[in-house]
Amino acid sequence: MDEQKPFPTSPRRSARTETVMVRPLLLKPQWMNGLSERLLVSHYVNNYGGALRRLNAIQARLAALDWTSAAAFEINGLKREELIAMGSVTLHEVYFDSLGGHGDSPPTGLEQPLAGLAQALERDFGSVAAWRAEFTAMAKALAGGSGWAILAWSARLGRLVNHWASDHAHALAGSTPILALDMYEHAYHLDFGARAGAYVDQVMANLNWQRIGARHRLAIGEAPEDELFLPFGAPVEEEARISPEELKAALEGDDDRRPVLLDLCLPKDLSRRTDMLAGAAMRAPGALARWIEELPRNRPIAIYCICGFQVSGGAVRELRRRGYDARAVVGGITAWHAIGGATVPLDKRTYEE
Questions:
Q1: What is the pLDDT of residues 292-301, one digit of tens each?
Q2: Are 339 and 244 in contact (CB under 8 A)?
Q3: Is the distance from CB of 183 to CB of 97 less than 8 angstroms?
Q4: Band of residue 144 on the pLDDT scale cut at 50, 70, 90
Q5: pLDDT band at 27 (very low <50, low <70, confident <90, very high)
Q6: What is the mean pLDDT of residues 127-133?
Q7: Over the stretch 285-326, which tens digit does the pLDDT of each residue have?
């Protein structure tokens, strides 16, 4: 699989840690059509996050390898596992990016793709309906096994191609995936059991055609809209955001400059929470006027919510407007879970009902 051209907000490699950084969820897992929050969050944290953590561990081993003396079986094994992990990370990111609505609006994936992509699908498959029939049949044919159904742009062929992949490392050479449907059992068994076909139908009803279209434009050499690849309501300015990896490093640093941690949660979402970052104070965003004066002005402030959408984003904008050094944690505590960040049981003693 060719390396994809990066989005402006795609995972970066940190020069200090040399780790591949987590990509946040862009969908709101509680606002999906027929795909449960439990399924989506488990898939993101355990399977995508597991692949990401595995990739970083493999690359750390490779960085320490003595290539002049390492045994062939060690080189082969590590490079094979690296390829599988890289493919899993990339395809999971394409999968999750392709799902979800806008804000609190449910997805409308059964509508037609936007004009540019619709025209390309009509050109290459005869019609959007013909593309959909082929893509869904290909995905359902993987039921009971494992792999991916992928819509990709092939520069060599000059067209969009539906292709089957039996595993994370099986792809069309020289292509760029713009839509990926995960057909491993972990993607559906919590909600659907063995009914893989029903899962495929629900995924197709949850597609975000704006982001899929943006991936297509990027693949053919056009620039996508940056904000499409940020969680809804997250700060647009890069200096107003902090990645989970950057936060983890900052929390291990000097006590005088360690960020003050704020855990923001809407009252209606408290039942969805079980844990928090150690040392965080849990606050209600609607009570900001009461707790803002307690915050120090000589320390950075990191604010997170469940997935890094408008709850933390709105608070960060207000704090920065008032002169605080505040940043939103990209992807919230869900992305923190995905990188394997430590947490403690939820403590609501500082929460204002």
A1: 999 999 999 9
A2: yes
A3: no
A4: confident
A5: very high
A6: 96
A7: 999 999 999 999 999 999 999 999 999 999 999 999 999 999
Amino acid at 21: M
Instruction: Please report where in the chains the tokens 């209606």 appear, as a residue.
Output: 268
The pLDDT tens digits of the residues spanning 160-175 come to: 999 999 889 888 999 9
Is 49 in contact with 332 (CB distance < 8 Å)? no
State both tokens at 298.
């000589």
Q: What's the residue count for the chain?
A: 353
Residue 7 has pLDDT above 70, yes or no: no
Q: Which tokens sit at 285?
A: 């965003």
Torsion region of 224: left, alpha or beta (phi above 0 gives left; psi -120 to 50 gives alpha)? beta
d(CA 40, CA 28): 10
- Tens digit of each residue's pLDDT (9 = 90 or more) over 33-92: 999 999 999 999 999 999 999 999 999 999 999 999 999 999 999 999 999 999 999 999
Q: Which residue has the tokens 């068994």?
A: 189
What pLDDT score does 19 carry?
86
Contacts of 48 (CB under 8 A, 6+ apart): 88, 89, 92, 93, 96, 338
> For 167, phi and psi rounded to 5 degrees?
-160, -175
Distance in angstroms (rounded) separating the CA atoms of residues 61 and 55: 10
Rounded distance between C-alpha atoms, residue 312 and residue 262, angstroms: 9
